[in-house]
Specification:
Elements lengths: L8 H27 L2 H21 L19 H22 L4 H7 L4 H7 L2 H20 L3 H28 L5 H12 L14 E5 L4 E5 L1 H6 L1 H4 L3 H8 L9 E4 L5 E6 L8 H11 L7 E4 L16 H6 L1 H20 L7 E4 L12 H33 L10
Parallel strand pairs: 5-6
Antiparallel strand pairs: 1-2, 1-4, 3-4
Helix pairs in contact: 1-7, 2-3, 2-6, 3-4, 3-5, 8-11
């Protein structure tokens, strides 16, 4: 009966693959851009070449790759012309490094190097200092280049997690918790195609609610005669609708004889204690005035009274179960106690406190459910037996005789 609504293996595998590939690709890109950027590595190479040219210039040897020589001063000093060309070349490289976002980290490390002072002064110690600083920065950068794989693995794991959880969460938010397939099959197996006119008792009431028309559905022998277009259906269809608790099962789609498709849900939404409707049907539709009722509950959460001085929004939110299920049950019980005379001789309500979930089906939960039922019987055994004895005595006219001494 409780078959979870899950995605097919195809869609689960597809979404998992999409998240895995996408996040892994993003991780590789982020890791490579941050820790193994080809532009940064090229800048290291260019700076080393520039320093090599400075050293050559100091020895009056031709420099390599100087493209800005035309900007050098026109004088007879080759040394001054080379210095000007080198200065323009290094300045251009430095500005590129410091303005490039992808090389921002390296730029910060090189900001302290005064290339202009080195070139103009031509002091050997400054060239050596620059070479050492560049070597240290390059060494540190190379030590962290393998971090790109760490970033890739982290994004890979994130992709695995999202690929597994996001489809589950999306499916949970877009569909009910359990499939109707097993529920409908169970109803048909247990109840077959028997209709309400086939029941052997005088009456049977199954309560549901039709969402779109905003009307209750009182499936019964009475309404099957009064409005067969809606109510003349198999009992299994009616119980399937009455079992369609929102979020647990999808609404039961029923095609009535008027050509409309109804969305029917659990009647507990409009009254969690259908004894109230059974009483009104017996009194108003069948005209009975002498009514006895035995109402058996299915368990309720422990009730805690609220201090009016401390009641606030948080208290109301914590009592959502009271608003959804218990309050109308208590109201129905109070109404029946008031309107059925004779006290427990004519009206008995048996209920048990339980925290079991309605879909708890583990062996331990089933045993707890049985124990709760036994506990409810033990607490109400005397009242229920006296109630049944009264009915039997009246039906068979058994006169009570005083016990022999």
């Amino acid at each position: 009966m409780f078959k979870p609504n899950t995605l097919s293996w195809f869609w689960s595998a597809l979404w998992f693959t999409v998240f895995l590939v996408a996040l892994t690709a993003v991780g590789f890109y982020v890791g490579r851009t941050t820790y193994d950027n080809p532009e940064v590595i090229k800048s290291f190479k260019d700076l080393r070449e520039t320093i090599s040219n400075v050293k050559r210039e100091k020895k009056n040897k031709p420099a390599k790759h100087l493209k800005n020589g035309d900007d050098a001063p026109k004088n007879n000093s080759v040394e001054e012309g080379m210095k000007s060309a080198l200065l323009a070349s290094v300045k251009e490289k430095k500005e590129k490094i410091l303005s490039d976002k992808s090389e921002k980290q390296l730029g910060k490390k090189l900001q302290g190097i005064d290339f202009k002072r080195i070139l103009h002064d031509g002091i050997k110690e400054h060239v050596a200092e620059t070479t050492a600083s560049l070597g240290e920065a390059e060494k540190k950068y190379n030590e962290n280049r393998s971090m790109k794989w760490v970033v890739t693995i982290i994004f890979f794991l994130i992709g695995c997690t999202l690929g597994y959880e996001v489809p589950k969460i999306t499916n949970m938010l877009s569909s009910s918790k359990y499939s109707r397939t097993n529920l409908d099959a169970l109803m048909k197996t247990l109840l077959g195609e028997y209709g309400f006119n086939d029941i052997v008792t005088q009456e049977l009431l199954v309560v549901a609610y039709e969402y779109n028309s905003q009307e209750p559905r009182f499936f019964s022998k009475y309404f099957a005669h009064q409005d067969p277009g809606i109510y003349d259906i198999p009992i299994g269809n009616a119980t399937g609708s009455s079992s369609a608790a929102p979020t647990f099962f999808d609404p039961h789609q029923v095609n009535n004889q008027y050509g409309f498709t109804e969305l029917q849900i659990d009647g507990g939404i409009i009254c969690n204690d259908p004894s109230l409707y059974a009483y009104e049907m017996a009194r108003d539709l069948y005209g009975y005035r002498k009514i006895r009722m035995l109402s058996l509950g299915t368990g309720e959460e422990p009730f805690t009274k609220v201090d009016p001085k401390t009641f606030d929004v948080a208290s109301a939110l914590a009592m959502n179960g009271e608003f959804i299920f218990n309050m109308d049950t208590y109201a129905a019980d109070s109404y029946l106690r008031t309107n059925i005379p004779g006290g427990e001789k004519n009206y008995v309500r048996a209920q048990v406190t339980s925290s079991l979930s309605m879909d708890a089906i583990a062996p331990k939960d089933i045993q707890n459910l049985k124990d709760a039922g036994t506990d409810m019987w033990n607490k109400n055994e005397v009242k229920i037996k006296a109630f049944i004895r009264t009915i039997i005595d009246e039906r068979y006219h058994v006169a009570s005789t005083p016990a022999k001494k």
